[in-house]
Write a structure and sequence with these properties.
Blueprint (H helix, E strand, L loop, with lengths): L6 E2 L1 H8 L6 H5 L8 H5 L4 H16 L5 E2 L2 E2 L11 E4 H11 L21 H49 L4 H19 L14 H11 L8 H20 L1
Helix pairs in contact: 1-4, 7-9
Length: 245
């Protein structure tokens, strides 16, 4: 009967892999620190040596995680590699990834029906996708937080600029619209005709009124002809919209 263990030494894996559990005591009596000792003492079981070397190669290449006396493997521990320890889970994953055609009985149930189960490869692939999605979500959350901070800073700056403009007397859109209504109403009253059709102003037209303003206030900032014409046009257009409802 195969006993499930949580970890194995490389020689343990090779013995179980070769199905030589009945000869375990005999095999372990050999000095495994001597290179080629397994091939020398057990020529009848060539795979025993081959499998051990295969495991060592996988460990040293980083394909198969292992430890030495509970610590990470270093160059100093290579002389005592027979004492490497491999977790059952890591060993199982290594077989699935690197030796998919091998199914040692001590790791894999031989007669179990796995038709309704998710394969380890599929599980690992899904796990990798999930890890990537979580990392992407974390990056998006960081980007969102940074953008939110920038928007908050811009909103604060906008409030400060509004307050600054108000303190300087710069009209807002609302106050400018009110000014245009007032200007438009004054133009309609000044340049318009009364109920009897009589001209109410000494100025015969808007152009004459503009000319009079320029003559009375020469060189005043904001009272150039182009500025006055534009403001008057905006004001008359707005008051016409108000009259139409």
């Amino acid at each position: 009967m195969i006993t499930i263990r949580s970890s194995y030494h490389p020689i343990d894996v090779a013995i179980l892999w070769c199905d030589l559990s009945e000869h375990e005591d005999e095999i372990l009596q050999v000095d495994l620190l001597q290179p080629g000792s397994l091939r020398k003492h057990f020529p009848q079981w060539p795979n025993l040596h081959n499998y051990v070397e295969c495991i060592y190669d996988a460990i040293l290449s980083g394909e198969l995680p292992a430890t030495y006396l509970g610590q990470p493997i270093t160059s100093d521990s290579h002389l005592h590699r027979v004492y490497y320890s491999i977790r059952r889970t890591d060993l199982l994953i290594w077989f699935v990834r690197s030796l998919p055609d091998q199914r040692p009985a001590f790791l894999f149930a031989q007669n179990a029906d796995h038709s309704g189960c998710v394969s380890l490869n599929a599980h690992l692939a899904k796990q990798a996708e999930l890890d990537y999605a979580l990392r992407s979500l974390e990056r998006l959350q960081q980007t969102f937080a940074s953008t939110a901070d920038e928007m908050a800073a811009l909103s604060t700056l906008n409030d400060k600029l509004k307050a600054r403009l108000e303190s300087l007397g710069v009209p807002s859109e609302t106050s400018e619209a009110m000014q245009n209504r007032l200007i438009g109403a004054m133009l309609e009253t000044t340049l318009g005709k009364n109920q009897n059709g009589k001209q109410q102003s000494i100025y015969s037209s808007q152009a004459a009124l503009v000319q009079a303003i320029l003559l009375r206030f020469p060189g005043v900032d904001g009272l150039s002809k182009s500025t006055i014409d534009r403001r008057f046009a905006d004001a008359r257009r707005l008051i016409a919209q108000v009259k139409r409802g």
